[in-house]
Write a structure and sequence with these properties.
It is elongated, with a radius of gyration of 21 Å. The relative contact order is 0.14. By secondary structure, the chain is mainly α. The chain is 64% helix and 0% strand.
Length: 227
């Protein structure tokens, strides 16, 4: 495809950053755009696997703590999220329950809740409401030190990084540039990728086996960095 046709479809404002990063080479700019899409697809797959593993681990933990309908019960009157400080979690669950209506099952409710919901279960108030036991799902995390506490706040912060990257990809934002600059740089992607693998390990999940045949992140990053 001619660059002019490609640009007409994708838009000049969107392509300008790619063109600048490739020193005006339209051929390289189109290649970079396509490789950014490839990297986004690859990384979104890895994040999706992590999200599923995270929500399932949380679900299993709270099923043991609170019973088979723990989510619906948590957002019912006098449930653990029925307070002003957990209002967002309370409302999110009930919004999904209204959508499900008579098709409700606990599994469907679990599947309907997004990454942000599960992340917020490690925030201060939701973590306390859940009995302050949820860190058990990261049973292989390092021991805390006086200078670094691997507590719920730490996990919440790490999950936020992944959540933000997930949202960037979902909104078709580029991930092949240095932050805020038209410079090719996959450092941030590599760091997030390493974080996801680390969190899998802290959950005692064999990430290599789980992601077998799916994980080509470093290969695509290397291709982009060589442009």
């Amino acid at each position: 495809m001619l660059y002019s046709d490609f640009e007409n479809i994708i838009s000049s404002p969107r392509m300008n950053r790619y063109l600048h990063a490739c020193n005006g080479s339209s051929r390289k700019a189109m290649t970079l755009y396509r490789k950014n899409l490839k990297l986004s697809q690859e990384l979104f797959t890895i994040i999706s696997c992590f999200e599923i593993a995270l929500r399932n681990a949380i679900d299993v933990h709270y099923l043991d703590q609170f019973g088979n309908d723990w989510l619906r019960n948590a957002a019912s009157k006098k449930g653990i999220f029925d307070n002003a400080r957990c209002k967002m979690s309370f409302m999110t669950i009930n919004d999904e329950l209204r959508k499900l209506k008579h098709h409700y099952t606990h599994s469907k409710l679990v599947a309907s809740l997004g990454f942000g919901f599960w992340r917020y279960l490690f925030s201060t108030h939701q973590y306390r409401a859940g009995g302050q036991t949820l860190l058990a799902i990261f049973s292989s995390r390092p021991k805390s030190t006086p200078t670094l506490q691997y507590n719920a706040s730490y996990i919440f912060s790490e999950l936020q990084k992944i959540n933000e990257l997930r949202n960037r990809i979902a909104h078709h934002e580029p991930i092949c540039f240095r932050n805020g600059q038209a410079v090719i740089d996959t450092t941030s992607v590599r760091q997030h990728y390493t974080l996801i693998l680390q969190l899998f390990q802290w959950m005692s999940i064999d990430e290599s086996a789980l992601l077998y045949g799916l994980d080509h992140i470093l290969t695509v990053c290397n291709e982009i960095d060589r442009l």
